[in-house]
Amino acid sequence: MSATAFPDHTLESAPAAARSTMAAVAQKQGYLPTAVTRLASSPELLGGFLKMSALFESTTLDPLSRETLIMTVAARNGCHVCVAMHTARLTALGADADLIAALRDGTPLPDERLEAVREFTLAVLVTSGAVGEDTLQSFLAHGYTGRNALEVVLGIGAYTMSTLANRLVSAPVDPQLARFA
Predict the structure, then answer these.
(1) Contact 45/22 with Cβ under 8 angstroms?
(2) Contact criterion met (CB below 8 Å) for 103 and 69
(3) pTM of this prediction exceeds 0.90
């Protein structure tokens, strides 16, 4: 990682357009994640990801389904900071340790409904959205809707952006998340 290309910005050194976003993240998280300090080099990317993430959080997918999608993308893309962050989130949601382990390992999930989200997410990624009718029907058969299928695409977009950017800037796992790494 080039420290020159992706410095660890402070609120004072960051581009002006990123400062209020950084301050809001620090207030919400209780600290300023290093990933945010590095992504602040592009206020547009940082702001865009946070807006897309907030939109994804407002979808009709339940929290565990959303986190299943996020962890599926994070593990697939090898984003260790995202895996740690969302392991913490799943833990806070009371997710079963076996579910978290399977998501981290990219293996089938013990929960059939969440496995349908994982499989559908991977199918959308592999086919660039051109999933077959059987794949879509399998997702729908687990209580999901056409709206949810489109919300999966939103989640994939948001977390592909995040995982690729975090890898590009070599975002480390912050001490606050070390136990979830």
Answers:
(1) no
(2) no
(3) yes
